[in-house]
Fold:
Amino acid sequence: MADGLKTLDGVAFPAKLTRLPNTYNVTRGRYAVVIPPTALLDESFKIPNKPQSLWVQFCPFFGEPNNSDFDFVKWVADNPEPKVELQEFNGEIELAGEVPIMPCLQKAIAVQNPTHPIRVALVQHMAQELRWFADPKSLSREQRKSIEETIFQYIKSLNWRDFNEYRTRQGIRTNLNYENAPSCHWYNLRGMCESKCWKYDGTIGS
Structure:
């Protein structure tokens, strides 16, 4: 199933922690349930709300030993990250209110239905800029509310096809807790970065 993938770094960002199987996430109100790998191939499969005792064998910590021949370390060694020669950026800088938006992110959000990682990247980028790169924990309730409202109004103006006020605010509030926004390296791994724009942080290219 990993055939053709550029990376095996998972979904979302390194700042997020992997939740232990069968533990309860108080913020989201859900369990981190263990499911059989084959279930992912079934389009009709629905993730259960609570852990299933019959599936404990699939737990990576307490389940049965993995007999797969796949070697993650070897895969990384055999699939080094390509060196990318980026062009210099000479375009105009787009703005989200007073927040500058990189060309790679601007292009990704200028569609009717952006992917979830792109939406998260937009919120985390805007939040980082609006708080002037301060630690999220240092913000007052009023500052958080102001940042949330600024991001919400901008997303609302994008007219995404599936825009939902409740879910949008919920997603913004969750991501206000993260200190770092995705790096240039993150965008480049997804084939989005084409030039050394004003945000270029030197983590990619040569």
User: Anything to note?
Assistant: Residues 11-16 have pLDDT under 50 and may be disordered.
